[in-house]
Each structure stands twice: as structure tokens, then as C-alpha cells.
Amino acid sequence: MSDPVVDNAVPSGNSSVAIPTDISGQILDLDEDDDLEVFSKGTTLTEGSSFNASMQTSPASMINQYKFEEEEGDADTKDIFVTVDNPESFVTAIETYVTYRVMTKTTRSEFDASEFEVRRRYQDFLWLKGRLEEAHPTLIVHPLPEKFVMKGMVERFNEDFIETRRKALHRFLNRIAEHPIFSSTDDFKIFLTAESGELTSHKKQGPSFLSRMGETVKAVAASVRGVRNRPEEFTDMQEYVEAFTQKIGSLDKVSQRIVREKKEHLEELKECVPIYTLWSQSEEELAEPLKSMADCLDSCCKETEEQVKEHNDLLIPALHEYVLCTETLKAVLRRRDNIQADFEAKTEALAMKKADKDAESKVLSLAWDSLVGRSPEEVKQQRQQKLKGEIKEMRDELDKMEDRLEWANNALKSDWTRWQKVMRTDLRSAFVDTAERNVNYYEKCLAVWESFLHSQRTEAEGNGKVDCS
Amino acid sequence: MADSGSEEIAVIGNTDLTPSESENNLKNTMVEKGTNLLKRMEINVAEAEKRTGKNAVNMQETYTVYLIETRPVDAASEGTNPVPDSLWRRYSEFELLRNYLLVAYPFVVVPPLPEKRAEFVWHKLTADNMDPDFVERRRVGLENFLLRVASHQVLSNDKIFYSFLTEENGWKETVFETGFQAKADSRLKALNATFRVKNPDKRFADMKHYGDELQSVISQLLRVRARAADRLYGVYKVHGNYGRVFSEWSAIEKEMGDGLQSAGHHMDAYAASVDDILEEEEHYADQLKEYLFYADAVRAVCRKHELTQFELEMAAQDLTSKKQQREELATGTVRTFSLKGMTSKLFGQETPEQREAKLKMLETQIEEGEELVKERNTECDEYVKSAWVDIERFKEQKDHDLREALISYAIMQISMCKKGIQVWNNAKECFSKM
């Protein structure tokens, strides 16, 4: 009997999951075997292309529905706007923390209203990120700002720190909102709309701490196992991520160093100003140009200060986010590997079980059974049935895993392309902005010095002292 | 005032700049051409060379010599362009010349030499006297010194200066023969005068104070500037790292590669541009340094005034006391408390003959004293007159030169800004192609 579901389950041409040929043969064999329970996946497949948020944990529902490129959000089609602002300190008897206002405006039908305003703290953002990662282990979640600041003793309630964090949280939510899959998740919706009490109780519904522990242990075990037949494109991705990590790390460091040097240069420049002013006080003819000089230097100092601030506010955080991204990318590749490793392990186990079954059918263990009083044929039949049952279970599980793997691979591939586009846009605009600000800075300083020159020359002309060229 | 009686020292003439001479001021901000020597002769310090030789304690040493070229002005303007006369001098000979001028013309604010050792350096420059950049800047400074001396109304006529430029051998001996070293005022004498003078000319006192302030302010400025140069160097050079990383990054990207690669080149160019910028800034620092050392020369002139004034006051005081003694002796009264008065009270008065002899001696001394006071008074007046003229000349020169220095600093900054605009506009274009 032909089973369309099974056909679909066979890796199609575009999948690059390599499955050893002997096993694939056995999978096809299933046709002649038992009554395969028809999964819900058959029904889900026909349900249409809209993403059902509640099915997020069923990978099977995502197969063949994964069409990222077509969902790419243009600015015109953006139907949800999220902002993070208005940080406030929240004081209780036990602790003090900062909450941020999260405002949402949307025309999406899944939302009950078109505008929402809630307050969230950093922990809430962490929770959301965790949930999204759990549900979609091979999708790339934009990084959150770090929990602690490693360098220097920065107060958690320091204004600059809070502002930097707020901006990063804003970017985080916007990236989620722009992501075709993440933005339609339940968790995201609840995050944006639920009152604090609601959110707390929803949080508790998630997988328990213990089960999450179990996942982590499994993941660690899997990572130790390693993957045997990683498709080349994922190896390429890995190599790229390693190289990219290095480069972005260097850029981050270089940029920070530039800011540091500029700050120190600024300090020295600032010291010049009072010296020129002091000097002008001992002079007569020179008093005016010297004072003018002091003023020019002062203006340049102000411009430098602003330039440094802009670097700090724009370029540094942008680069830093992509440094954090590399961790996410590595984790995603690792998780994909784990899924494949799991699948490979299970595939091996199934093969062994089948081998057992075949071996069994050839062995007649007469001795014990005759003692017990059962006929050898009976015993053999019993055992065969048992093994058949076990094999069927394993095969079902293996099918699920294969689906999961294929889905994970496709998800990663699409999201990878998406991520690269976003990265390119982000970094390009960060650098273009920086270059523009530098041009601005030099233009302003140029104006300062040109006006100084002009005033000196016109004055000198007036006094008949200097012939101008 | 140093009075060697030698005819080699020029007579102090009318040192006011005539209107025509002012008009002759060249674009070369450092030099006034309307004076004697430079009218006749072109001077430049063309080259520098390393030499080794035995020094005073018979040890091998390496030193640098500078080639001084001179050429009559008329010949050059006729278009024949003859080979210039030239000779080699080392730094210590320049120092000797200047020390001579200081003693011979104490009322002149003598132009300073470039620094003996490199100071106010920022890390890229070494303090090594043999460093080619240092030698080059010193060459320029020495030329500047010669031009300033040659354009000075008084100094340019000095024979020793002339032979410094024209006679390679035996010049040193000639200088020593003037005996100028013996005539130099001792440091102690000068210091003593500074503390004890009662009525220095207020203008000189103010000028000395100004010299102190100028020195202090310029030293501070040079120190801060050196540190700022260090930092600026750092800022630019670190951008070179961008160039390297962009280049490496472009290798792993497909679409972004080209934009990154070309942006990287611009970052390299930006990093390299700082060398020229700082070299130009060094020139500004050199201009400031010259006036730092000029401040010292100004103070020296003021100190000399204090000395002459002090010596006048001393002579006058001496005269007064001698006159007083005469009066006491003549009238027999002891007006002031004195040892003489005491002893005469205790031991009785002297004989008329003794008194006569004493009176006669005092008269002579008073006569001499009056001569001395008159002399010193004249000296002092003349010194004040001629020194003040040179100080006025110096002030005008300083105002002009420093204003020009500020203007050229502004021009430098403008050039730096323009370069920056260009580089970052180019980089921006490359980035937008990323």
C-alpha cells in the first residue's frame, strides 16, 4: 500500500540530510509491514499555510510551510510597531530593579486590540528569549544586552548603563517583531500584551526547571557524541562563524580603542585652552588673536566630545551586538548538530534492533523453553512479535526525528540567509553613519579655523601689517 | 656697560626703522630685509654632515657640522649666479658667537639659537641629537639665527659676526682675542643687583615680568602640545587596524567583500596621514620654542639694566656718604651715629693737621666720585635708551611673528580637516557599497 505520508517523510531532493542507504532501504520496507498509524502530520499538512501559533512545538507542522523569503517584511507591509522606553526604578522591600515601558501598535488580527502598553523588566526579556530558543533551537534569536558589565564597576542603576540597555532591548524586540516566525509566537504576544500578573502565571506554565535540566543534560551528552555526516553547507557555516567571530571581535576592540585614544586626546586639547587664555592676558597686540585661538580650540573640543559620544552611542553598541550574535550562531549550529547526532544514534539503534530481529529468527533456543514447557515455535513467535513492536516504536520515533532534523536544517538555512542580510544592513549602516559623523566633525572644525583665519587676516589688513596671499 | 674700546664694536646709531625699510618686509616672516648686511649678502645654512674627530680631552667624538653659504646679493640678481662662498661650522661655534654678542651688545635682545637638546618631545621623536629629523630642524633653526642677526641694525655690522660667516680658520682665536669673556658680568654680581636695586626703570621691571610670564606660558603650551601630539598619533594609527581587519573580513564575505576591501584602503591612508600632520605641527612648536628662548634674552637685557642702575645707585650712595663725612669733618659736628663720632668722643678729637689731610683726601674722593656718578649716569641713560629701542623692535617682531605662527597653525588645522573630510567621504562611499 502506498502511504503518501511515508513518501513525504522520505527526504526530498532538496534536503541534504544524508541517510545511509541501507537504512533508507529498510524504511521503504515499512510499506509492506504493519498498519502505520497515520500521524497528525497528515492532517496538519492540509490545514493551510498560516502558521498556527499553538503548534509551535510540533516540528512536523512546519515542513514545507517554511517560506521565509516570501515573508520578508518590507517597510510597507510592517504591521506591528514596538518601542521600549521610559525606564523607571521599581523599589520593593526585597529588591530594586528597573522596568521599561513596552508599547505596541499593531493591526494584526491575532491581537485583541490595536495598542498595548505594559512594563517589563530585564528578566522578562530573558524569559522571552529563552522560550523562543527552546521552541526554535535552530533559529537565530537576536542577542540581548549582557546581564552584567564585565569591565569596570558600572552601577546597575547608572543612567548611561540603563540608556544603553534600553536601546539594546528596543532593538531586540524589534528584531523579534520583524522575524516571520518569532513574531507570530504566543510567547511574544503575551510578552507584549499581558499584565504583570498574567505574565507571571504564564511563565510558570512553561517546561519546568527539572525538564529543562533534562534537556540541557541531553544536549551536553549529544555534543559529546558528535556528528558523523554533517552536510557541507553547515560545515561552511561553522567555518564562517569562526572567522566572523574573530573579525567582529577585532573590530569591537579596535573601535573601543579609538574611542579611548580620542578621549585622551580631548583631555590634552582641553588643557591648551586656559593656557592660551592666560597668555592673552600678558599681551597687548596679541591678546585678541590668542583669545581667539583659545575660543577655537574650545569649539573643537566640544565637537570632539560630541563625536566621541556618538561613536559610543552608535558604533560601539552595534558592533558589540554582533559580537554577542556570534555566540548565538555557534549555539544554533551546535544544536543543529545535536539534532543530527541524535538522529544518527537512533538510526544506528534501529539498525541494530533489526539485526537482532533477523538474528533471532534463526536461533532456536530449545533448552530453556522445553524446560518451561513451551513449544519452541511459540516462544519464537512471542519474541518476534515483541521485537516487531519495539522496531515499530523505534521507527516511528525515527520518522519524527527525521522530520525534526529536516525542519531544523531548513529553518537554519533560511534563517541564516535572513541573518546575513540583516547583519549586512546593520553593519553597513553603522559604518556609513560613523563615516558621515566623522565628515561632519571635520566640517565643523574646518569652519571654526576658517573663521579664525578670516578674522586674523582682515584685522591684519586693517592694520597694514601683513600682506595677504 | 661692556666697553672694550675696540673699534670692532659698532657705534650705537639711530635704530628706528624708516618707513621705507618697513615696507621692504618680506613675506619671510622671520626677517627684515631693510638692514645692512642682508642688503649685500644672501646667507643660508645649506647642509649638515657628520664628522668625527678628537676633542679637547683627546677622545674620539662624532659631531655634526653645518655648511654656511654666502653670496653677494647683487651678483644673484644680475643673473650670473656664481658659486657661493661656504664654510663649515659646528653648533659649539654658533654658541661661541652668540655668547660674544651677548657680552658685546648687552642692550640688544640677541636672537636665540635652536635648542641644544631636544626637549618637549612626544614619543615618536627621539631626543637623540644625531637623529636626522632633529639635525634637519636644527639646520633650519641655525639659518634662522643667522638671518635674524644679519638683519639686526646693530648686530649685523659686527666684524666678528662677519668673519664667522666668511673666515673658516682662525675665527675662534679672533673671538677670544676680543677678551669678551673677561668682560662678562658674573652671575653673582647680576643676582646681587637684582635683589638690591632700588629704582629700576618701571618699563624694564614690567618687561622682565613679561619675560617670566612668556616663558612660563610657552613651556606649558609646549608640554601639553607634545602630549596631545602623542594622542593624536594614537588615534590615527589605530585606524590602520581597521584597514587590516576589513581586508581580512572581506575575504570571508561575498557581497560585502568589495566595499570592505576598498574602505580598508582608505583607513590605511587615514592612518598614514598623521605623519605629515605632526611634522607640520612640529614647525609650529619650533616657532614657539624660538620665543621661549627669546624670553630669556629679554630678561637678560632687563637684568643688565638692573645692574647698571644698581651700580649708579651704589656710586651715588658712596658719593653721598663721602660728602656727609666731609661735612662732619668740616663743621666738627657729628650728625649721624658713626664710629668716627664715637671714637672721637672717647679718644678725643684729632689734630688739625690730621683733619686737614683727611679733608683733602675726601675732596679728591668726592671729585672722583662725582665723575663716576656722572659717568654711570650717562651709561645708565644711554643703556636705557638703546635697550628700550631694541625692546620695542623686539615687541613688534614678536607680535608679528607669533601672529603669523597662529595663522599658519590655523592653516595647518584647515588642511588636516580637509584631508579628513576627503578620506571619510571616500570611506563612506565604500561602506555604502558593502
* Count of separate DSSP helical elements of chain A: 13
Top-tier CATH class of chain A: Alpha Beta
Q: What is the largest interface, and how many residues per chain?
A: A-B, 56 and 52 residues
Describe the strand arrangement of the main beta sheet of chain A, using strand numbers. Answer: 1-2-3
Count of DSSP H/I helices of chain B: 13
Summarize the structure.
By secondary structure, chain A is mostly helical.
Structure in words:
The complex is a heterodimer of chains A (469) and B (434). With 469 residues, chain A is mainly alpha-helical. Chain A has one domain (27-197, 227-342, 408-468): PX Domain (2-Layer Sandwich), CATH 3.30.1520. Chain A has helices spanning 4-9, 21-29, 40-45, 68-71, 122-135, 159-178, 186-193, 196-205, 209-225, 232-282, 287-362, 366-372, 376-463; strands at residues 80-91, 96-106, 115-121. Chain A has a three-stranded antiparallel beta sheet. In chain A, strand 2 (96-106) and strand 3 form a beta hairpin. In chain A, helix 11 packs antiparallel against helix 13 (376-463). The longest helix of chain A is centred in the C-terminal third of the chain and has 88 residues, at 376-463. The radius of gyration of chain A is 33 Å and the shape is elongated. Chain B is mainly alpha-helical and 434 residues long. Chain B is built from 13 helices and three strands, in the order H-H-E-E-H-E-H-H-H-H-H-H-H-H-H-H. Chain B has helices at residues 19-23, 36-40, 73-78, 91-104, 132-150, 159-166, 171-177, 180-183, 187-196, 202-250, 257-331, 339-347, 352-432; strands at residues 41-54, 60-72, 85-90. In chain B, strands 1-2-3 form a three-stranded antiparallel beta sheet. In chain B, a hairpin with a 5-residue loop joins strand 1 (41-54) and strand 2 (60-72). The longest helix of chain B has 81 residues, at 352-432. The relative contact order of chain B is 0.10. Classes of the chains: A mainly alpha (469), B mainly alpha (434). At the A-B interface, helix 10, helix 11 and helix 13 of A face helix 10 and helix 13 of B. Chain A: It holds the Pfam family PX. Chain A: One of its GO terms (biological process) is reticulophagy. Chain A: GO terms for molecular function: phosphatidylinositol binding. Chain A: Residues 78-199 form the PX domain.
